[in-house]
Design goal:
Largest sheet: none
Keywords: Iron, Metal-binding
GO cellular component, one term: cytoplasm
Family: Belongs to the cytochrome P450 family.
Mean pLDDT: 87
Number of helices: 5
Pfam families: p450
Number of domains: 1
Shape: flat
Radius of gyration: 20 Å
Structural class: mainly alpha
Number of strands: 0
InterPro entries: Cyt_P450, Cyt_P450_E_grp-I, Cyt_P450_sf, Cytochrome_P450_fam2
């Protein structure tokens, strides 16, 4: 919550959250690299995945200034999908372990 209220101040304060910023930047660089690779190999005839479809929509809406299809939104939505999937998996594993601890005879 402090970061949302004071983003410029938080970047200068020491603390463990600095490590989170470094990891976040690495993750963003990784996803940017994946997007760049998809742009190089983009085929208009077929769509292989989410990024391909989004890149095609960017090309379709290139002249429209009111369009939300641009690379920054692609980066953010891809990161959201990745993090949401990671959280879902972690939660499922946590519940499975809790269930096995509560009912060891079912294991």
């Amino acid at each position: 919550q402090l970061y949302n209220a004071f983003p410029l101040v938080m970047r200068w304060l020491p603390g463990p959250f600095r490590k989170i910023f470094r990891h976040w930047e690495k993750l963003k660089c990784f996803v940017k690299g994946v997007i760049a690779k998809h742009k190089e190999e983009l085929s208009l005839a077929e769509s292989g995945d989410y990024i391909d479809c989004y890149l095609k929509e960017i090309k379709k809406c290139k002249g429209d200034p009111s369009s939300y299809f641009h690379e920054e939104n692609l980066l953010c939505s891809t990161l959201d999908l990745f993090l949401t999937g990671t959280e879902t998996t972690a939660t499922a594993i946590r519940w499975a372990l809790l269930y096995m601890a509560m009912y060891p005879h079912i294991q």
